[in-house]
Amino acid sequence: QVRLVESGGGVVQPGGSVRLSCSASTESQFNFFDMGWYRQASGLKRELVASISHLHITDYGYFAKGRFTISRDNTKNTVDLQMNALEPEDSDVYYCRIIGTESWGQGTRVTVSS
Length: 114
Hints:
Elements: E1 2-7, E2 10-12, E3 18-26, E4 35-40, E5 47-52, E6 58-60, E7 68-73, E8 78-83, E9 92-98, E10 108-112
């Protein structure tokens, strides 16, 4: 059984930054998991924002490249998403996931607005 809890969302001005964190409670070895951050606007499909493999190989959605950075700390069972140069279009609910499973967090909302 794995529990994922996201934190760090909120309201930020355009051009600003926010750091999301996902904490995993698991009896399995967190360092074996490939992890991802996804986002979903109301009524739309969830899309991949960024992923980081168990080998720390990262990948980003086209909209995230150059602005967002995903990282993980296997000693703390966390995966973070640093988001810079935010735009109103980045306003969504952001979810953490163990890739290849249906283990998702509850989501954290990011609103980019002046």
